[in-house]
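Hey, quick one: can you model this chain's 3D structure?
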Amino acid sequence: MLEIKDLHAQVDGKEILRGVNLTIRDGEVHVLMGPNGSGKSTLSHVLVGNPRYEVTQGSITFNGKDLLALSPEDRSHEGIFMSFQAPIEIPGVSMTNFMRAALNAKRKYFGQEPIPAGEFLKLLKEKRALVGLDAHFMSRGVNEGFSGGERKRNEIFQMAVLDPCFSILDETDSGLDVDALRMVAEGFNRLRNERTSAMVITHYQRMLDYLQPDYVHVLVKGRIVREGTKQLGYEIEEKGFDWIINEAEA
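Sure thing. Here's the predicted structure for all 250 residues.
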């Protein structure tokens, strides 16, 4: 599904990624860990096409297409979704109208007609149930007045409606209490199938417990320096990153 080769990227003239290589196949969940400032969020922003981040070397192939040649909008339509660390508010735009516009934009990209109103409302009801989002949120502005847990559940709800094949969860667990984290993780797990894949950025063992990832990668100073199973994540929880950093620099 996703193949990253020798990826170098910079922001504001400073190189952050220094040769990332990563392959994610259909149905796989990969966890990305690393010290603060190691390039985890930079990689996610490069994948979705944030114009602030400049790729200076390397390639990214997504389902056989040159991802770097696609606009951010087209990357989304092709099936890439990102759940942000701090989802923003959009006052005055109801969740219902926001999701209808997003879904119809994707349908237009594939030459489909706008979704009928009845079918759309049925879809919203079905997907809300996955993440425990109450109906009254649909008439409120996007994330307006939402708690941290509600914003994160709203992100998973949007993912459910748009049905991406590749999802990026950038520290979705940040700031969540145990119950909210469990609900978000369970909602995500219900969306997993043999054709969907994900890259999850986290610092916490609890996410490993909930998501049961296929692989864990450690990013240090813009490079993936160690790879393994979820057991690697548990070792990091116990011992920190210093032992990996020391090995990488040896």
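One thing worth noting: The longest helix spans residues 95-109.
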